[in-house]
Design brief:
Rossmann fold, 9 helices, 12 strands
């Protein structure tokens, strides 16, 4: 069982405070969405959870300070899918997914049967088995996104942080990815994902964290967080919230009165 607890977490990049005094806790079996407008601090908060940026406050993984954990140990415990990765080396898809097993390998060692089984399972989950021999740098944006997800899944960590995993994906594969993330959570993993699609967050996630200007302004069930009032205050939009399908569906109607489009 894995847990992640944030207490008074703030992040400053240069002279600018990007994340402000965030308190939250997460547990095994949860699928949690972090949402908010551009520049709200979502991705920076996700990176802080992995000690990839300096932060003030405390972030504890199973009670241990993430900033003090050895990198390999943290990588085995929390898999990470960053947004918008650029591939520089012409590796095959299979070889790229195999890189997800590096946290489990000793220096200069080769992957074994257990690692190969994890790679096969991850590629099947992300629907990239047919791409295994393709050169990763020649993939489309959507194909590349699914391959990078497979690499993260190959870690087989008890927690996964996915930053905008739906970017570049067509609607069908967006549903596939959210089904997969939900299945990971139902299987006992902790899954935290940064999303822009509010309806996907409402439909699939157990809990939603809503951020604005670096601060956590609301957290709770999708029904409690994704309200017309909250969306007006945070995004400056008027939205219709429908629940006919059993979950909130968010339809943006336009800018709220007096709100100008972000530049």
């Amino acid at each position: 069982m894995v847990s992640l607890a944030l207490q008074s977490v703030s992040v400053s990049l240069g002279r600018r405070t990007v994340v402000r005094d965030v308190n939250a806790s997460f547990g095994a079996g949860e699928l949690v969405a972090i949402v908010g407008p551009n520049g709200a601090g979502k991705s920076t908060l996700a990176r802080a959870m992995l000690a990839l940026v300096p932060f003030a406050g405390t972030i504890a993984l199973d009670g241990a300070d993430v900033a003090r954990l050895p990198r390999a140990q943290l990588a085995r415990q929390v898999a990470y899918l960053p947004q918008g990765q650029t591939l520089h080396w012409p590796l095959s898809v299979e070889r790229l997914v195999e890189l997800g097993r590096l946290p489990h390998l000793a220096p200069l060692s080769r992957i074994g049967a257990t690692d190969r089984a994890a790679v096969e399972q991850a590629m099947a989950q992300a629907d990239v088995l047919s791409l295994r021999d393709r050169v990763a740098t020649e993939l489309s944006g959507g194909e590349r996104a699914r391959v990078m997800l497979a690499r993260a899944l190959a870690v087989q960590a008890p927690a996964l942080i996915a930053d905008e995993p739906l970017a570049s994906l067509d609607p069908g594969h967006q549903i596939d990815v959210m089904d997969l993330l939900q299945a990971e959570a139902r299987g006992g993993a902790l899954v935290i994902t940064v999303l822009h699609d509010l309806t996907m967050a409402a439909r699939y996630c157990d809990r939603v964290l809503l951020m604005a200007q670096g601060a956590l302004v609301a957290q709770g069930s999708p029904e409690a967080v994704l309200t017309r009032e909250n969306l007006r205050a945070v995004y400056g939009i008027e939205a219709r919230i429908d629940r006919a399908g059993g979950w909130p569906s968010v339809t943006v109607m336009g800018r709220a009165a007096g709100e100008a489009a972000a530049t």
